[in-house]
Structure to design on (198 residues):
């Protein structure tokens, strides 16, 4: 018998049509926002009975949390460019693309905007980001092994600084992203912006 996890999913991976359920969840989120997202709507669009969805995910917050983590369309290929600078630039380009290209941009803005109104969803979004930092950890482990990064460096802080810069630029300030934005942002985070005094 499969074991339930705290988000309402089971370790065996969910129902057989989980990919269709996750896709329908993200599509409806992009189209209607979190308020317009309903389990009934997901059931209709995915062709799955709503009782099946509720059996695996007890609420729409739990369903969206599972979709954010489990949907194939949000998978990120882990870069391995041979340098920390190159790997972080590749990750930041992925974040920028997510925030500037529909439907990913609609999904990201709707999900994170809804967090301020839904404590339940906030917990699932925290799980999503914890999952992402776990997936990205090899980038930082390799950098430590190459001598590019201190062993006690905080990967989450580095990712927060870079992703936060993209969010501010694209979503809040609604400014264009210059061609050299990713390289400048990564260089600033890794090397600082102050003048080196000799």
């Amino acid at each position: 018998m499969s074991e339930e996890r705290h988000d309402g999913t089971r370790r065996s991976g969910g129902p057989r049509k989980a990919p269709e359920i996750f896709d329908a969840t993200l599509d409806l989120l992009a189209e209607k926002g979190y308020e317009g997202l309903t389990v009934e709507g997901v059931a209709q669009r995915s062709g799955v009975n709503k009782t099946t969805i509720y059996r695996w995910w007890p609420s729409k917050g739990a369903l969206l949390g599972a979709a954010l983590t489990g949907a194939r369309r949000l998978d990120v290929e882990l870069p391995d460019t041979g340098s920390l600078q190159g790997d972080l630039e590749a990750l930041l380009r992925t974040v920028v693309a997510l925030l500037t290209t529909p439907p990913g941009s609609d999904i990201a803005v709707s999900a994170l905007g809804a967090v301020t109104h839904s404590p339940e969803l906030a917990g699932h979004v925290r799980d999503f980001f914890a999952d992402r930092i776990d997936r990205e950890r090899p980038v930082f482990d390799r950098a430590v092994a190459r001598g590019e990064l201190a062993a006690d460096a905080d990967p989450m802080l580095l990712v927060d600084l870079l992703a936060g810069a993209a969010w501010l630029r694209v979503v809040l300030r609604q400014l264009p992203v210059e061609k050299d934005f990713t390289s400048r942002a990564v260089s600033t985070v890794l090397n600082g912006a102050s003048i080196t005094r000799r």
